[in-house]
Amino acid sequence: MDLCFQVQLTDFYPLARNYVCFSLLYTNLIKNRMEKKSFFENISEIGENLMLYIETNVSLYKLIALEKAVKALTVVVSNTFIILFLVLSLIFFSAAAALYFGRILESTELGLLIVAGGYFLLGIVFYVFKKQIFSRLIIKFLINIFVKDDEDEKHNGLAK
Known about the structure:
Layout: H1 2-10, H2 14-34, H3 39-105, H4 108-128, H5 130-159
Helix pairs in contact: 1-2, 1-3, 2-3, 3-4
């Protein structure tokens, strides 16, 4: 029983996991036949082994869900900090550009209006193409978090 539990926590490939657990159930059945146990005792032990198998599968999928949630949270937090620093640098670059245009035009207000107008036009472009821009980015982002990690784990697991 312990071997089945350890295999399920370390091996993320369902076919191999099922093979190991069912082979353990089968060897337990053969051992019970050699010990001359009754049919009902064998059925009872198979039921207990099956319940253990189901509980182990549930705990495995809980661990997999926890791992994916931690990966997603890590990506979201790290990207939040990156975006925060990029926004702060954009603010300072915008202020510098506004002051530069203000010196050229000899009016700080005109420099600020030029930078604000540039952001306004950029906002309009993002609004018009929001579905094409953001939906693809979000889909790719989620695929990279959830699906690509599974493919990498399967590929790395087969290479071992």
